[in-house]
Amino acid sequence: MLDIKTLMMLYLIINVISTGAMAVIWSQHRGRFAGITFWLIDMILQAVGSVLIILRGLIPDLISMTVSNTLILAGALIILMGLERFTGKKGWQIHNYVLLAVFIAVSAYFAAVQPNLPAREIAVSAMTIILTFQCCWLLLRRVAPGQRQITRLTGIVFAGYVALNFARIILTIITPDQTNDFFKSGAVSALAIIGYIVLSTCLTISLVLMVNRRLLADVKGQEEKFTTAFHSSPYAIMLTRPSDGIIFEVNDGFVNISGYQYSEAVGKTTIDLNLWVKEEDRLAVVSELTQGREIRGVEYQFRHKTGRVITGLFSANVVTVNNETCILSSIGDITERKQMEEKLKIAFEELERFTYTISHDLKSPLVTVKTFLGYLRQDMPGPDAEKVEKDMLYIEGAADKMSRLLDELLEMSRIGRVVHPPVMVPFGDLVQEALDMVAGGIRERGVAVQVSAEPLSLYGDRPRLVEIWQNLLENAVKFMGGQASPRIDIGIEKRGKDTIFFVRDNGMGIDPRYKSRVFNLFDKLDAKTEGTGLGLAIVRRIVELYKGTAWFESAGEGQGSCFFFTLPAALQDQSQGESA
Amino acid sequence: MKGKPIIILLVEDDPAHAEIVIRNFKDFNLANRIMHVEDGQAALDYLYRKGEFSNVQESPRPHIVLLDLRLPRVDGLEVLKQIKSDRDLHSIPVVILTTSEAEIDRVKAYDCHANSYLVKPVDFIRFVELMKAFGYYWLAWNESPC
Lengths: 580, 146
Prior knowledge:
The complex is a heterodimer. By secondary structure, chain A is an alpha+beta fold. Chain A folds into four domains: 4-227; 233-333, PAS domain (Beta-Lactamase); 335-415, Helix Hairpins, CATH 1.10.287; 421-580, Histidine kinase-like ATPase, C-terminal domain (Heat Shock Protein 90, 2-Layer Sandwich). In chain A, 59% of the residues lie in helices and 14% in strands. In chain A, strands 2-1-5-4-3 form a five-stranded antiparallel sheet, sandwiched between helices. A five-stranded mixed sheet of chain A has the order 7-9-10-12-11. Chain A has a two-stranded antiparallel ribbon with strand order 6-8. In chain A, α2 (36-54) packs antiparallel against α3. The longest helix of chain A has 46 residues, at 187-232. The relative contact order of chain A is 0.05. Chain B has one domain (7-141): Response regulator (Rossmann fold). Chain B has helices at residues 15-27, 40-47, 76-84, 103-111, 124-141, and strands at residues 7-11, 33-37, 64-67, 94-98, 116-119. Chain A binds chain B through residues 356, 359-361, 363-368, 370-375, 394, 397-398, 511, 514, 517, 522-528, and chain B through 13-14, 16-17, 19-20, 23, 38-39, 70-73, 75, 98-102, 104, 120-125, 127-128.
């Protein structure tokens, strides 16, 4: 037979150790998880309660009996409240307060008024069952299914408490030896205390494990959160070792932007991947980083796996992960933005030239009109009819010029917009249509026109395409100069993969010095010729709409000239022609 | 100086504008010789006495150049640059006469050492006034370097 007092001492020691263990857990995790303070209070109450029991006989019975048990049960209630907070299932405790009050009354009655140990023991056990069952129910049933893995073990320990106390009540009732001295009570109490010792130990361990499991789950959740953020970032992110430049981690954004798969990038250096277009950029970045500076949103060029050049907004800094220094860099792909910017810049420059031209070229005929109207007013009353006629001619000429300018400006502004739906047109038809439009000039000047037969069709805005040849033909006729046997050749040349259209004449030719100005808006090379200088600018714009280029070759003045152009978008697979 | 005709080289691609300038000089009896060329290349050929301008009697050195900016073949600014960087020609006063009020043209012209910058007025009276003032200042009051 084990000595109850010895067992109680053992129980006290276990409680003190548990309190110490819980104090450690509390000091580390009280800020992270709610309810741990309640657990510690429970442990302290349990220890104080057992001290009071051990001191029975030395202190007043009411304190040793009722107060001690009340403390222990209050502890059980507090741990229930703590567990509710820990699991986020805080509930009402009024019923438990009432029960505890009832228990205090019952316990005091059987301690002071009518001392009865078995009755007190049954009361304690019943109250313990009520409280531990609530803990058990909370941890095994009330918590969210995903959380049960964390709380299950502790729940089972509480189930143990319930079972132990049931057994104790039954054994207390059926065991005949009745005594009012707890320390002399028999095997049932001894077994009960041993059970408490075991369960108390288990409870402490299970609580510690529960905190651990919860920590692990949280860390895993955090990791998932960061991994998701890392991979779903639109930026290319990579982690490299500063010592040798080896990449040891990249995200999905890197795979998308660089074209390299994870397995192709990890273990290599950016030099292996040929990622930097300019080596000096890479060296500048390394130098900045080694001097302890970080790089924030600097524009560099990078090379995609396919060789395509990407403009990237680059940031990098040195970070320490797990005591290891590494370079964290990210690249945002701004290639499209840059291209748009470039296009916008070109459009803006054209607009600027346009407004400049308007202010100059349109003003010029206005000066003429106004001035000669002034002269006309002076000349009209006089006898000189010839002078009046001359004034009016100048005015008329200026008005004509202005009207022509306005027409062509309007035409120019129309080019960018699709006016006609794209169609397939044979090359020969386009050229014939253009020739029909300039037939007057050709007949007048007696130009021999030679068109080579080409089995080629173009896809695009028909009138717009015709306009290219029309303008080039008008140009050729206009600049025939003194050529005795004027001649124009129209055809196609193949240079590599490119199909090149040409319009060649044997007229005045163009001095190579004016090469850069030929296609400019309103730039005329000869003051005496008709026209506004818009013809070749229109050609260039249409050609550019079909993603082509236009240029000319001429051996010099009097040597004739040849205008070339490409129209890739009109020759591509037909579905894409619509973009033009 | 007085009595000796002042030779003006007028570089103007618009025949109507050239007519206005020439008529103005005639109307104010500023008895001068106006040599008119229609583009930048012709202006340079004249100054360097090339091609059709090789005869010194027919193509005398001008006392002043009246230069438009937007010209066929060689641009007005280019003509100005060439004149001002030539040891022999740079002392000839060059007056820009253009329709352009654009700041960029004005700045560029003075950068290339233009001696004056005049904008053709849209108003008849003002144009006449301008030519009159130009004539008195440059052809009567101003002492030319040669």
